[in-house]
Structures are given as structure tokens and as C-alpha cells.
Design brief:
By secondary structure, the chain is mostly helical. The protein has one domain (5-119). It has helices at residues 5-26, 33-54, 65-82, 89-119.
């Protein structure tokens, strides 16, 4: 799928997040502290970039539930990163699934809506 240039770098960052999720979900019973901590600053920076960039888009989107989902996911992921339980397989699984599902939501739903309603030439 061709990505609008304004979303391209965010989309590329999702690839790295999804790779992290695969590694965690492959062995959720292992401690993934080193891998997650290595990505933490990048993930938090990514969330902040999206929040800043998308602030001008929300009022142009016809579905307000997109922003609600976006905000809820970012809040939950930040909380999980602030209170990690790296030795807990259930936490590892939930973190990886939440991050994976969020990246997929953005790629498959949100970015499509932003491209159509905010970035396309009318």
C-alpha cells in the first residue's frame, strides 16, 4: 500500500515496533527487558510525534472514535512502559498484542482516513 509522504516515516517506525512484538510473542515467558528498554525512548518519541502531527487532523475526520482509540492505546502503552513486568508472560503478551494491534489500527484504518480526509488534494 502506497503511503502518503507525510505518514511515511511513522509507517516505517511501525515496522520496527511490529518486529519487537514478534520477538516478544515468540517467547512471552522470557524476560524481554533489554529489548523493550532499547525501544522505549523511540516508542515514546513516536507517540509524541503522532500526537503533535495528528492534532491538526482530528477535526477533519468524520469518525470521532478514531481519536478515542488512538488516545486510549497511547495511554495504555505509556502506562505499561512506565510500570513494566518483564518477568510476567501475561504482561509481555498484553504489551506486545496491544502495541501490534495499535500499529495495525494506525496502518489499516487511521492512516487511510487521514490520507483521504486530511492529506488528499480536493
Amino acid at each position: 500500500m502506497k503511503r502518503h509522504p507525510a505518514l511515511l516515516s511513522l509507517s516505517q517506525e511501525h515496522h520496527h515496533a511490529l518486529a519487537l512484538c514478534v520477538r516478544i510473542l515468540r517467547n512471552p515467558e522470557l524476560n524481554h527487558a533489554e529489548d523493550i528498554e532499547r525501544h522505549k525512548a523511540d516508542l515514546l518519541e513516536h507517540f509524541a510525534k503522532e500526537e503533535t502531527q495528528f492534532a491538526t487532523y482530528w477535526h477533519q475526520l468524520p469518525d470521532s472514535s478514531l481519536k478515542e482509540r488512538f488516545d486510549q492505546d497511547h495511554t495504555l502503552l505509556r502506562k505499561m512502559l512506565d510500570q513494566p513486568r518483564f518477568d510476567d508472560a501475561q504482561w509481555n503478551r498484553q504489551f506486545a498484542q496491544t502495541l501490534r494491534d495499535h500499529a495495525r489500527f494506525e496502518e489499516r484504518v487511521l492512516f487511510e482516513q487521514i490520507t483521504e480526509h486530511c492529506l488528499s488534494e480536493k
